[in-house]
Amino acid sequence: MQTTAAPSDAGGSSRAVPGSWEVRTVPLKFKLGEMTLFKLPLSLAVGTAHFSEMQVDAFCDWSQWDSVPRSVQGVAIKSQPVSAELPRLTRLRGAIRYVPAQYRRFYVEFGQSFEEYLQKFSSQSRSKRRREMRKFAESSGGTLDLRIYCTPEELEEFLRVARELSQKTFQERLLDAGLPAGEPFRRQLLEKGAAGKVRGFILFHAGQAAAYVLYEIRDPGIVMSLYTGYDPVLRALSPGTVMHHLSIEKLFAEGGLQMLDFTEGEGTHKQYFATASRQCADIYLLKPSLRVRTILQLHAALDFLSQTAVRLLDRLGLKAQIKKLIRARA
Prior knowledge:
single chain, 2 domains, twelve-stranded mixed beta sheet, 9 helices
């Protein structure tokens, strides 16, 4: 997967824009591998439509500057479904198109029973999953202790326990992608919980939190996988895999849901659990200026350097070892 500089939903100011746009201060992340070196803020009108609601190639070009505030530097569309790979940097009439990431967006379709869903896995894979779950249960006193948190009162407890666990994960220490700790996030989460739009799950091992996942339910029945993590000390017991299996089973049992969206990125667990995927691109359409061109060229050059280094390490057979070492040190 290419390094992404997609807009972040967390932090920054935002205000509504007519239609499916919202003005946000978006940090353009300059990364080397998985490490963020620094960020540059951009004022952008960000598309808020879900990828399943967007037409293929709908926003690959831009001729609608009159529909967004003049104060913004451009627009950003996350997970625009595309029919073909796009060039990273393209000059258009009145705009510069920058495509920092292109990837398959994985999801689970709920139009079947959980038992039918399991048939997508090979018999060998199903057998392996049963062994993992049995091993986890046996090491945890013989039970699989998965707890669900939905109401505001329950979500207060979820935040307390999951935040402690998140601080141990490489997602937070290395990727700046742990469960947020700020009051604005807490307040928004409790409001969504009061509306029945949140599902938090924590898998416990011998009474201690081992893995967590936070889902948000958006109309019409789209479940978004927002944050997830597990205790690296328990890695050998596959707590993340066990937790995802059990939480997905619970979602199937709810009924009335259409899709579990694993959001951006091509993580191994996303591809494993998904039933389908769609080719997508993160697209920036920016008003041209010397500063903008310089920023985008620098970002593209750093990303090229990062990917070249990753490919070299892969050819030398060192990629997995280096990644494991970096995450362990984090």
